[in-house]
Design goal:
The chain is an alpha+beta fold. It contains 6 helices and 21 strands. A hairpin with a 2-residue loop joins strand 18 and strand 19. The C terminus is likely disordered.
Length: 403
């Protein structure tokens, strides 16, 4: 009986093992079929994403950016025209001081020049006496020739003392010129400012002896500073014609980037030659009374000039990042496929570029940051981003659109 129970138990265990093996085998087959089906199913290809911005035509005014150094209109190294010892110095004759035109800077010892004037006056007086005497002699000669009863003119002009009279007159003229020179030299012993000026250097001391041509001071005029702004040919094309630029009404904003200071200047003139080094032509911007500005615009200040240019109608505004290294613009067609064209840049403002629109297109989906791996015809998945436009750049467009 006991053996029979054991046999039954062994039989049940064997049956359960067989059932488990069959179940495991069936599960493995099902899993294999599932994997096989997933491997034969076609893969879904997702189009690459690309950041784009929708742009349209607007009207904008160009802005040209240039750099230059503010320099006084007149820069003079003042020298002496006569020699002498420095006798006096004006209290205002110090570096950093501003002086008016005609103000005395220094005076030289003038004793010898006063003597020269006195001698020249004496020479003039003597020449005047000699001329009067010669005039009297000529009158007497005329009378004697008339009383002699002789007709016609004498054989020589010496008879009537015509050459003697001319010589006396020339002597007086020469003496007068020498007097003028002596008086001028005496005046030059007082050295004055030839224009309203800033004293940059003082090159003499009390008691110094100055020879003719010795340096006295360096002066900068204070009526105006000028900034020469070299521009490329492309920048010149963004500016209006010379007649529009030069009536002193074309306002230019000047900025000292180091100190964040600004001034308003104007276009003074346009250079008509190319610089031999840079091969560029310059625009001259001026600021009147620079030291009276708030803040003062000191000569020697390096500034950045923002010059308003032409007004362009119906053009595109793009971020600079939208222009590829090859100068191309990528965009999506109506089927979201990539296309490109060569950008015709009109002008730039900071990180913004203004270009000629593609012919026949008013609006476009422009790729913001094109990659070198892009190919024409690639299908893309666009992600829209808003175009950032400054109110200053859009002002002209809004005004014209409202009109």
């Amino acid at each position: 009986m006991k053996q029979k129970k054991q046999l039954i138990i062994i039989t049940l265990i064997s049956m359960l093992s067989i059932i488990g093996a069959i179940t495991y085998t069936q599960a493995q087959k099902a899993d294999y079929r599932k994997k096989s089906l997933s491997m034969t199913k076609p893969a879904v290809i997702t189009a690459p994403e690309v950041e784009v911005m929708t742009i349209s035509k607007h009207n904008y005014q160009a802005q040209i950016i240039g750099n230059g150094e503010a320099q006084s209109r007149n820069i003079l190294a003042l020298t002496t025209e006569v020699s002498g010892q420095v006798e006096t110095l004006s209290p205002q004759f110090e570096t950093g001081k501003q002086i008016e035109q005609g103000a005395l800077l220094t005076s030289l010892n003038d004793t010898s020049y006063q003597q020269a004037v006195t001698d020249a006056k004496l020479a003039v007086a003597d020449a005047q006496v000699a001329l009067l005497e010669e005039e009297r002699e000529g009158q007497q000669a005329q009378l004697e020739w008339k009383n002699s009863g002789m007709t016609g003119e004498p054989d020589s002009t010496l008879v009537l003392r015509t050459p003697q009279l001319a010589a006396a007159q020339a002597s007086l003229d020469n003496a007068q010129r020498q007097l003028n020179t002596a008086e001028r030299n005496l005046q030059k012993t007082h050295i004055t400012a030839p224009f309203n000026a800033l004293i940059v250097s003082r090159d003499i001391q009390p008691g110094s002896y100055l020879s003719v041509g010795a340096s006295v001071t360096t002066l900068y005029s204070t009526d105006r500073v000028e900034i020469s702004i070299p521009l490329s040919e492309h920048q010149w094309q963004s500016l209006p014609d010379i007649n529009t630029l030069t009536p002193k009404s074309w306002v230019v904003t000047l900025t000292n980037m180091e100190k964040n200071e600004q001034w308003q200047g104007y276009v003074q003139r346009v250079e008509q030659h190319l610089d031999s080094t840079s091969r560029q032509r310059a625009l001259i911007v001026a600021v009147d009374l620079p030291l009276a500005q708030t803040p003062a615009l000191f000569p020697g200040t390096f500034v950045t000039a923002a010059i308003p240019g032409k007004k362009w109608n119906d053009i595109w505004e793009l971020p600079a990042s939208a222009i590829s290294q090859g100068g191309e613009v990528w965009y999506l067609d109506n089927n979201n496929n990539l296309l490109k064209f060569k950008a015709n840049k009109l002008f730039e403002k900071g990180s913004t570029v203004y270009i000629t629109p593609l012919s026949g297109m008013g609006t476009a989906q422009i790729v913001v940051r094109p990659l070198n791996t892009y190919l024409v015809g690639m299908h893309m998945s666009p992600i829209q981003t808003d175009a950032t436009e400054s109110s200053a750049n859009k002002l002209l467009a809004h005004v014209q659109e409202e009109q």
